[in-house]
UniProtKB/TrEMBL annotation:
<feature type="domain" description="Oxidoreductase molybdopterin-binding">
    <location>
        <begin position="56"/>
        <end position="200"/>
    </location>
</feature>
<dbReference type="InterPro" id="IPR036374">
    <property type="entry name" value="OxRdtase_Mopterin-bd_sf"/>
</dbReference>
<protein>
    <submittedName>
        <fullName>Sulfite oxidase-like oxidoreductase</fullName>
    </submittedName>
</protein>
<dbReference type="InterPro" id="IPR000572">
    <property type="entry name" value="OxRdtase_Mopterin-bd_dom"/>
</dbReference>
<dbReference type="Pfam" id="PF00174">
    <property type="entry name" value="Oxidored_molyb"/>
</dbReference>
Length: 220
């Protein structure tokens, strides 16, 4: 597929790649989450913007599957009923998007990543997790970030089913990293020994993405 044919190579994608090259929104400041709730260079919003590649995959619940692959002792493929039968968690957390908006106190329902980890049991050598989504999006993060105590596979927001535009039926939420790491419409979770940078990580975004360290873009 050439760039011209690739539906993900949109004007917005190119604009965001340019922002990464220019260091847009960088303040050069760092902070600690314990002392500053709002990370450097962020501003608060009350609504919830929609940001993605522009493809909203509408998956029939009867055909929806979530698969765990890679270096685990117990790989699983969940259909909707099995996913909903997993232990449920309820977490409230803030969103920090690299495009500089933050939104406080989002109430999520879903399956804690720690409960998923307890079930599938990643092997000793696992260091990274790569999320694959129904729209073709990918993102990578270290196992310890995926395993954060308030990270979850969310199917609900503010007591309602997570809407399609925000990643329903199920998205990842990892609140302590920039929101591009929180893959919407997740289809597969791959446990790996080696890292594999995802969609934005190969387009100039930082590999880790800690908002308090202002890890917006890669240094090279
Ligand atoms: N599958 C998928 N997940 C994705 C994206 C995407 O394009 N596809 N965009 C990421 C980016 S860049 C952001 S900022 C957030 C936006 O989530 P929201 O639309 O719910 O605010 O989703 C992230 N997860
Ligand atoms: Mo984003």
């Amino acid at each position: 597929m050439t760039d011209a044919e690739d539906p993900t190579e949109t004007k917005l994608t190119r604009t965001k790649e340019r922002w990464a090259r220019e260091g847009r929104f960088l303040t050069g400041r760092t902070a600690r989450p314990e002392t500053e709730r709002l990370p450097p260079g962020q501003h608060l919003v009350r609504d919830w913007p929609v940001l993605d590649l522009g493809l909203h995959p509408d998956i029939d619940p009867a055909r929806w599957r979530l698969t765990v692959t890679g270096l685990v002792d117990h790989p699983v493929t969940w259909d909707w009923t099995t996913f909903r039968a997993q232990p449920q968690s309820f977490f409230t957390s803030d969103i920090h998007c690299v495009t500089s908006w933050s939104r406080y106190d989002n109430r999520w329902d879903g399956v804690a990543t720690r409960d998923l980890l307890a079930l599938v049991e990643p092997k000793e050598e696992v260091r990274f997790v790569v999320l694959h989504s129904y729209d073709g999006y990918t993102t990578n993060l270290p196992l310890e970030d995926f395993a954060a105590e308030n990270a979850l596979l969310a199917h609900g927001w503010e007591g309602r089913p997570l809407s399609l535009e925000h990643g329903g039926p199920v998205r990842l939420v990892v609140p302590h990293l920039y929101f591009w790491k929180s893959a919407k419409w997740i289809q597969r979770i791959d446990f790996r020994a080696a890292d594999a940078p995802g969609f934005w990580e190969v387009r100039g975004y930082h590999n880790h993405g800690d908002p308090w360290q202002e890890q917006r873009y890669s240094e090279d």
